[in-house]
Amino acid sequence: ILNVEQSPQSLHVQEGDSTNFTCSFPSSNFYALHWYRWETAKSPEALFVMTLNGDEKKKGRISATLNTKEGYSYLYIKGSQPEDSATYLCASLLTGGGNKLTFGTGTQLKVEL
Amino acid sequence: EPEVTQTPSHQVTQMGQEVILRCVPISNHLYFYWYRQILGQKVEFLVSFYNNEISEKSEIFDDQFSVERPDGSNFTLKIRSTKLEDSAMYFCASSKETQETQYFGPGTRLLVL
Hints:
Largest sheet of chain A: 6 strands, mixed
Helix content of chain B: under 10%
Largest sheet of chain B: 7 strands, mixed
Number of helices of chain A: 0
Distance between the termini of chain B: 37 Å
Structural class of chain B: mainly beta
Number of helices of chain B: 0
Shape of chain A: globular
Oligomer: heterodimer
Strand content of chain B: over 45%
Radius of gyration of chain B: 13 Å
Structural class of chain A: mainly beta
Radius of gyration of chain A: 14 Å
Helix content of chain A: under 10%
Strand content of chain A: over 45%
Distance between the termini of chain A: 37 Å
Number of strands of chain A: 11
Order of helices and strands of chain B: EEEEEEEEEEE
Number of strands of chain B: 11
């Protein structure tokens, strides 16, 4: 994997559904993986920074896992609510890459009533 | 909670004109960044700034771009002679330490006509 990729590109779920999406990133020279939540007209909100293989982080109903050996991270949302509707971005940071975040295209989540 | 602010939220300019985008990073942060997102594309890194100098820049950040921290609070991005392809959402971000969470502002949407 040469670039940061996210799937799916968009997702429609019903309120109460649990959902997950994937971020794939280059595993060589990996330093950290960042997840952001971005609602239109607002600042992208930092959700998690993950560095260690096997890391699991949780914030309310949102959690994330990290596999640095195979180069992927999953973001899970349990019991989706309409306010979870947003674009979820992941970005990788490399060792020796300074502070340059390399972003994926994002997964656009729409939670319907 | 401290946040990164950006002004203006929208700017429309004519091709060839100079624009200055302004950002106020979080007050105790030391590292500052500019990113941009052209519509439909990934968020991409432009430049990072630390200790009053550029620490890293991308290929996009050519001689038409410059950054400055004119006082203790503002961080600006200047585009000297705008091109149509400079139309994008420009995000400012800041972090307290190197390779830590980057906190983003809400962006300035620049439209070059």
